[in-house]
Amino acid sequence: MKRYTVMKTPLGEMTLQANDDGVTGAWFEVNTTLPEHLGERDDHFALLVETIKQLDEYYLGIRNQFDLPLAATGTPFQMQIWQALTTIPFGETWSYQDLANAIGNPRAVRAVGLANGKNPISVIVPCHRVIGKNGKLTGYAGGVTRKAALLKLEQGY
């Protein structure tokens, strides 16, 4: 059964979702990938409480990696991309080409971009660390302004 809660962050509210296997979603209030059905609201579900704690520590500058079980669902290719996103070092950025290279499929840049855009676990699975090949910020489901703020936050550690 999926459960969810809502937390306040310096960048706006985030909806967090989890089940017994792990975190299944983390979305800012304006997000293009927020699902219609979140499950049951449960502000006391242990995994959601821990997720809030770790996100609070991240925003306060005292955590640079997350230690949470993840249970997002997607196609095998999406799952491969989302796993690769977790290997991008804190405070660094990769291009979509770098991400395609990391999975051993340098020609899959467009598919990588589409899978990256479908990442349901914002911040924790750091899709915000992927930028255009020219170094410019590209789309982000939570908004490019938030993407810039997250990158700035990470560079300020």
From TrEMBL:
Top enzyme class, one word, equals transferase
Q: Which GO terms describe its cellular component?
A: cytoplasm
Annotated EC: 2.1.1.63
Q: Where is the active site?
A: C127
Q: Which InterPro entries match?
A: MethylDNA_cys_MeTrfase_AS, MethylDNA_cys_MeTrfase_DNA-bd, MethylDNA_cys_MeTrfase_DNAb, MethylG_MeTrfase_N, MGMT, MGMT_N_sf, WH-like_DNA-bd_sf
What else does the entry mention about this protein?
This enzyme catalyzes only one turnover and therefore is not strictly catalytic. According to one definition, an enzyme is a biocatalyst that acts repeatedly and over many reaction cycles.
Q: So what does this one do?
A: Involved in the cellular defense against the biological effects of O6-methylguanine (O6-MeG) and O4-methylthymine (O4-MeT) in DNA. Repairs the methylated nucleobase in DNA by stoichiometrically transferring the methyl group to a cysteine residue in the enzyme. This is a suicide reaction: the enzyme is irreversibly inactivated.
This one is known as: Methylated-DNA--protein-cysteine methyltransferase
Q: Which organism is it from?
A: Vibrio renipiscarius
The beginning of the lineage is: Bacteria, Pseudomonadati, Pseudomonadota, Gammaproteobacteria, Vibrionales
